[in-house]
Design brief:
By secondary structure, the protein is of the alpha/beta class. It has twelve helices and eight strands. Keywords: DNA-binding.
């Protein structure tokens, strides 16, 4: 027991409209402090986050700490760093699989989920407030950010697509602005969901709809200049005068095959010896291997490419090269 003469006052900021969970969390805090202190304990909710000693922040599935914390300011400005580290931050997720356990940010002191038992939440709260008395206070001068991917977790084009989605644009409009196909946008979305550890599309919509995420990626669109965006594209799109998607895909296929062939010229004697597999071209085009094979067969019928079959039985492989 720690004797005290004055009642202990703990302002708490809980960023949620779930009153049932908020009242249960305040009850656990009051019960925990009454066991540790002899005097009275006053725990009150406040609407200002920076005026509270404990900040309970609810996150959407897949939301990371660097979505709402300025990582650059945290590393370079001591005032911002000590302001963030001077509070107790408790993150709450719907499920345990909705957050990445490999990211250990010094800002977040504890993580719980809505499905945790009362005993687990109580143990996390005890460690949150009384771990310093057992192991000493943490060193605020050396925050450990070395293992955090930070804002560089997503590729530039993936961030740009998220910015357009946060503005409410459709897939066709985004494909026109980014100069890519709708299939490529679907590939970007699957890559984003894999990186932020989201399996359901509904969870992806909740993550993108959160205020911190949508605001961050909306700023990326504002700094995007379409005239100079072609220099950062994996491939350039040829706009056909009729606006046909089929001729556009065939042109991009030819450009991809030329680029792959050129990259292998230092290994082979001549271009006639270079044969490309369907998977290699599909990876370069960022589309499925089945769509790629269907498109190459159409181009073979028109005489744009030629193919050979290597192997035998179930291990046979179609290889392609440009027609001379």
């Amino acid at each position: 027991m720690v004797p005290t003469a004055k009642p202990l006052h703990l302002p708490v900021h809980i960023a949620t409209e779930n009153n049932y969970f908020s009242m249960g969390l305040i009850f656990l805090l009051k019960e925990l402090f009454e066991e540790e202190y002899q005097g009275g304990v006053i725990i009150s909710k406040t609407s200002e986050p920076m005026a509270a000693d404990l900040i309970v922040k609810f996150h959407t599935p897949g939301e990371k700490v660097f979505d709402w914390v300025g990582c650059h300011e945290f590393r370079t400005h001591n005032e911002y760093k000590f302001k963030m580290l001077g509070k107790k931050w408790l993150s709450v997720y719907p499920r345990s699989e909705h957050y990445d356990r490999n990211i250990n940010c010094p800002v977040i002191n504890a993580v719980i989920t809505m499905r945790n038992s009362v005993a687990t939440i109580r143990r996390k709260l005890f460690t949150l407030f009384f771990a310093d008395s057992m192991s000493g206070p943490p060193d605020l001068r050396k925050p450990n950010c070395s293992k955090c991917p930070g804002p560089y977790q997503l590729a530039w084009r993936e961030q740009l697509m998220l910015g357009y989605l946060s503005q409410g644009l459709g897939h066709y409009e985004i494909s026109q602005k980014m100069g890519c196909s709708i299939k490529a946008l679907s590939s970007y979305r699957r890559s984003i969901m894999r990186k932020i550890n989201i399996k359901r599309y509904s969870d992806f919509v909740l993550w993108l709809g959160s205020q911190a995420v949508s605001k961050k990626y909306a700023e990326i669109v504002q700094h995007h200049v379409p005239e100079y965006a072609d220099d950062r594209l994996i491939w350039k799109t040829k706009l056909s005068p009729e606006g046909g998607d089929e001729s556009d895909d065939k042109y991009r296929t030819l450009q991809s095959m030329k680029r792959l062939t050129t990259s292998r010229l230092h290994l082979k004697q001549s271009e006639s010896e270079i044969w490309l597999t369907t998977r290699e071209i599909a990876n370069e085009m960022d589309i499925s291997i089945y769509s790629m094979r269907y498109l190459l067969c159409q181009m073979e019928n028109s005489g744009a490419v030629i193919s050979i079959k290597t192997g035998s039985g179930r291990s046979n492989t179609l290889r392609w090269k440009l027609a001379s």
